[in-house]
Amino acid sequence: MKQVGEALQDFMLSSTYKGEIVAIGIAAWGTIHNRNSLICHTGSFPAEYILDEEAQGSLCCLDSNHSHFILVDDGTHGKYGVEIPLRTNLEKYISEQTKVKEGVAIKIPIVCVVLEGGPGTLDTIYNAINNGTPCVIVEGSGRVADVIAQIQDIVRNKQLLTVFREGKDGQQDIDVAILQAMLKASRCHDHFGHENWDYQLKLAVAWNRVDIARSEIFTEDHEWKPFDLHPMMAAALIANKPEFVKLFLEQGIQLKEFVTWDTLIYLYENMATSSVFHGKLQKVLLEEKEHAAISKMPRIQLHHVSQVLRELLGDFTHQLYPKLNNSEKHHLPIVLPQNKVQGVHLQALYKCSAAQAPFSMDPVRDLLIWAIVQNRKELADIFWAQNRDCIAAALACSNMLKELSKEENDTDSSEEMLTLADKYEHRAIGVFTECYRKDEEKAQNLLIRVSDAWGKTTCLQLALEGKNMKFVSHGGVQAFLTRVWWGKLSVDNGICQVILCMLFFPLLYTGIITFRKKRIQPTPGLNRFRAFFTAPVVIFHFNILSYFSFLCLFAFVLMTDFQSTPSWPEYVIYFWLFSLVCEEARQLFCDPDGFGLIKMASLYFSDFWNKLDACAILIFIVGLVCSYTFQQVQEHTDQIWKFQRHDLIEEYNGRPPAPPPFILLNHLQIFVKCVFLQKPTARHKQLKKKFEKNEEAALLSWEMYLKENYLQLQQCQQEQIPEQKIQHITDRVDKLTEMLNLDQGKMMRLLEQRLLHLEEQAFQFAKALKWIVQSLSNSGFGTEEDIPVLVPSRAVETKEQQAEEVSESLFTLSHVSSRNLLYPKSPVIRFPVPDEKVPWETEFDIYNPPFYSSETQEDITPKFPRDNLENLSRINFNSLDGDINRQSFHGTYTVEDGLPLNPMGRTGLRGQGILRYFGPNHALHPVVTR
């Protein structure tokens, strides 16, 4: 206020203007020093005021250069800013007044000039701008003026500015606003089509906002190549972000291209240090360091991983990853990043390993193992769902988790592993059940198919090694074991029939025994004889008869014929015992899988029946003493019996057909073939089968198809659970609520516009009724006292003000939309204008828009008279030009070179276009609604 007064004083002293300038100051009564001197009960015009600036303190004195003052009193003392509402309303009222000068009606111009200023000045500027009052900020005057000048520079880079309003615009999380701001900033730095999409994706992964990645990054604006996503795929795996892994797989990442030798090494080097698998891997490296007598810890290689995996899966499996020679090793010349989420070093990894061909026959298996050994459930579920050999994979995962849980110190983690192991066993049972329902033969082939991906083992071996009794006791598995037990015989044969044919083998050719394969039925030759006597059930009963015969002979010798010198029955007993020892030796040294003597010995002594031979009585006593064990066995008798049944069937499936002591003939045959004839012995009959590649591929495809059916069935069953239904309904309600919140502002604006329109119509009806009533009254119908009062309410005026604000915002949007390069209904191309160059206040030196005014009205409906260039100089802009209103609802506009400038900014075109008038074109658009 003081600066304005001094400026007026300087103007009056230096100017020849002789008129009176009225300067009105508005201040708060409670902030005026010596305000009591202005109080006069009788009135004082003009009032006398004593200036005392030295003693004013925190108050202020009135400026002597102002001619009038309006002092606002709200009962407070020393509180600034209480006059702002009154000043705002007064300024608005003055600006709406029309003054006629020289026949031209113009509105009183008003402007807000800001010099310095404090907190109250911000409210003054805010109210002025809301009322459409232009503001001039004097930069360099200090305080708030300088702050606002800097804010204007900030707002010019609006792409770097994000306003977060809690609870508005659908924004609920501040982290979303922060991430969106960073994404906007990254787009701004690479403005000319070189967006740093990798950087944006790294931000989204680091913040774990897959929703932002879907909506802001993976759009049509940029086409992602699968190879470009490999570094962030590795980062998402290490950071355990399954949602991003799903997203990357949806974007077309091929795991066969992603999983390389270097990738797996990198993943295992960056696995969780708290996992049990990491500790076991470190032990292997430490043993290799001590064995090689080196000072530096060796780097992790996949054969180290394979060594630990073999401990978890079982020694009967082969190495999953071979040990490479020095010439075959892949070199990885990178330094591992400390921050595992950052993708800079990952990019270098993929640049140096991109030329290497994928080594693994099953990359899905590799990632599944990496996830399962760290107990990462979601990642393991993703990769298991994509695995072709899903039954073997589920059983292998169950075995690994059970072994890791034994060494886990954390009780909660151990229980989670056991729970997850049980889950994968149920998955294996579920998929096998689906397969068994569709085709029993194919399902049983899946049990004995040799899986190269899981160490050349079978599903049945994995289930037995992991003691998955639920899987082994499945009806399909037991049906397979029954089929093996009967060999080539039909399972419909009775035991009595079998024993009868054992005693009188010519009965085989009478049809009393049926065979499983039709081609054996009519064969009268040796095939039927061989098929019967090589069946495990027949071998088992022959051994029982042999054992009882041995016991009877042994009892007879001890009780009746035990002499000082051995008799011939005693020699028979010795011979018989020798045959039994030879059979045990054959079982010990027979190595069909090539495991070696030590491994075969360990497997032999791990067999339950062989242990039973050594300490049967002790184990029996311990089993009876331990009541808990007895209770557990009693509860799961059926599962335990079915599980142990396999060992019996497998043993007699691989035994020579002749019982002791005649079994020595088979042993002699084997000895002669191996030693003298140098011929390989017949393969040990095993419960495994190697299929051809085409047949195996078809079998795995069939398994994967039924796995998808199983997963869909599980999903449907999961959705039927009441808790899941409630959760699903809750999610849908949340989504609907979010959609409503997003559209709430828009809907409220539309509703408010319609209400304003209705209020305006009601106001017009009231005016019309008032005119009708007044006319009837003047014509003698009724008296003036009976005329109802029909005036607009304050609410209507407020709504009209809000309607003006809404119309201005809508006009702003329409102005932006109207700056299309091609002018409508013409071949004229507009001059391109960026958003930041639209305001006239912004310098735009190269702005040179084309001039266009349509000369014909063929494409304009309806036809109307138009302005022309000849009478352009006679047009009175910003006023009433005859019957034409040249005034703009946005205030006074600038006329430059005889042409008016659009008050909303540059449009890229000069001239009239296809409009009716130069300058503002007022139009009414009738809208018929419901």
Automatic annotation (TrEMBL):
Q: Which InterPro entries match?
A: NUDIX_hydrolase-like_dom_sf (IPR015797), TRPM (IPR050927), TRPM-like (IPR057366), TRPM_SLOG (IPR041491)
Q: List the GO biological process terms.
A: release of sequestered calcium ion into cytosol
Give TM segment ranges. Answer: 497-516, 537-559, 610-630
Give every TRPM SLOG domain span. Answer: 1-160
Q: How does the entry describe its membrane topology?
A: Multi-pass membrane protein
- The domain of life for this entry's organism is Eukaryota
Tell me the ranges covered by the TRPM-like domain, including all copies. 216-474
Indicate yes or no for the key word Cell membrane. Answer: yes
This protein's name: Transient receptor potential cation channel subfamily M member 2
Q: Report the source organism.
A: Crotalus adamanteus
